[in-house]
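Supplementary Methods S3. Complex input for the adenosine monophosphate-bound model.
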Amino acid sequence: MTRIFSGIKPTGHLTLGNYLGAVRQWVKTDQHRGDALFCVVDLHALTVDHDPARVRRLSRQAATLLLAAGLDPTCCTLFVQSHVAEHTRLAYLLECTATDGEMRRMIQYKEKAARERATGGSVRLSLLTYPVLMAADILAYGADEVPVGDDQAQHVELTRDLAMRFNQRYGHAFTVPRAVLPDVAARVMDLQDPLSKMGKSHAETSGIVYLLDDADVVRRKVMRAVTDSGSEVAYDRETQPGVANLLEILAACKGGDSKPDELAAGYDSYGALKKDTAEAVVEVLRPVRERHAELCAEPGYVDEVLRAGAERARGVARPTVDGAYRAIGLLPPV
Ligand code: AMP
Ligand code: TRP
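Predicted complex, serialized as structure tokens:
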């Protein structure tokens, strides 16, 4: 059976980008077509300046929202990264496999480190080694597929390189995984700045739609989205990034076979496109928000899902990580 693994970091409230780029795929297809594990990767949230209470709160909120969005613990395994020690155990071996140059070439590291330095902050060493921990997340479970948004493709590519290098040097220890990207909305852009990704770690602005925004807030944000000069509705990411983003969001929310370029033909004004996009987003988010409110009233249920999830995850990861410890030359404990 195909093993599927993916993760989400509790660095901010989940956004429409997370939902359309990743979570929706996990819910609709991934959890039904293989042995799927989904992880709230809390250790990754410590790579940038953080507030302990906020990370704790956001970790629980992310798990609750994933259940609200439709992850079903009878079909998949949902857990919190720091509850399973195999991730950090394996990360060290992969630090002994990766090179300094490889880490410094990661686009996300370069961008985030530059942002930290520009604001006078210091760059945590873990920001540099983060992709190695991500590789450990994936390889510990022998994942075949990693469903992610476009921004994570480079990290999955690195994971493949590390798995192949390790296997070649020390004998077969890891499955070589591949990234699976959604057909549309692999990169949802900020509504106020359609050249930047809609990112949950960014400062809150009206360009970011959160899964827990209420209907009126969603409508206001979408209606105020920056569009392009000109007035023709066409799907062209280069010349009309704002309109293209709305068309992708609309297509993704409609689902089925909706294609952004075909939808464009049905509109002769930006206003009508925004209105339909706003309503489509409201309809997609409504059940998630409602279910989230119900689950918040049942914290014991979420705790139990996470407890059972961590137990299953440990059982899957331990033999693979123990095998890697032996393969690399460490003396097994007696
Ligand atoms: P993160 O928020 O970085 O933890 O990302 C969790 C998942 O959501 C990853 O698979 C990302 O690739 C995906 N994702 C995050 N932001 C976006 C976005 N703006 N568009 C599409 N996918 C996204
Ligand atoms: N780095 C990913 C992100 O920022 C989150 C993540 C951590 C992840 N470990 C993972 C995604 C393993 C997929 C598989 O979005």
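The chain is about 55% helix and 5% strand. The radius of gyration is 20 Å.
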